[in-house]
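This part of the workshop introduces the protein records we will be handling. The structure tokens are whole numbers drawn from a learned vocabulary of backbone shapes. The record below serves as our worked example for the rest of this section.

===
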Amino acid sequence: MQRGFITDYSGFQKHTDRNTEMEYYLANDSLNLYVLFAARNEMVQRKLLRVGLVIEFEIPERKDKIAKLTFPPDQVTFQPAGRGSQLSDLSSRKAAYVSRATQFFTEGFEKTTGQLALGLWGGMSARIRHDSLALYYEIKIPLQELFGDEFDLREISRQDIILTAAIEAIPRPLSERTRENLPPADDRFGSPNTRRPGGGMYPGDYSRVPSGSPRYMPVDGSTDLLFRKQRIKRKFRLAPGEFR
């Protein structure tokens, strides 16, 4: 352990997602569940910096139990490559992100819900770190946060837990779309020269979503994606004892 966080994952169950190439490790003792995600693919690391990571734990035997952890994206506006930004280098971006990332968010757990500080060991804990090869998300969850105070480890080790990790889609910037993909300017704004009555936006018109973002998407819900949403899903069970 280093400042309370685990440094040796050799005893953990290791899994690799084929689509994202992300490695993730799972283990538990009598009190806590430990999870590590390691993103080694360069493009996946860049996506995580832009949109963050959402991790869910679902327990089917407890039908209303879906607990969620959210690691927000970097808050710096990313400039297209070639603009001379000092953050264009991935290693610099990761270092800057980790230094700025101070909080993560929890929802649906038994005791802890809301905003928590990254890097503190005690109760529910998480940290983000990096090296030249990967971006890492480390998590410790007390089992009572998933199963309540009165849990029996042998009993809950017979229950399935569904782990889902999601990297959201990234819409393509308007500047990268071809002119043919956009409706004529007059049609978009209801000019008197068009056949459409009145003004305002119609399905297919392009609006800024969200406000202040450089990314655009159609208001009808369809989108021209720069990257599609990626999801990791794994069903697992706790070990009835210490790390195995």
Observations:
- The radius of gyration is 22 Å.
- The longest strand covers residues 32-39.
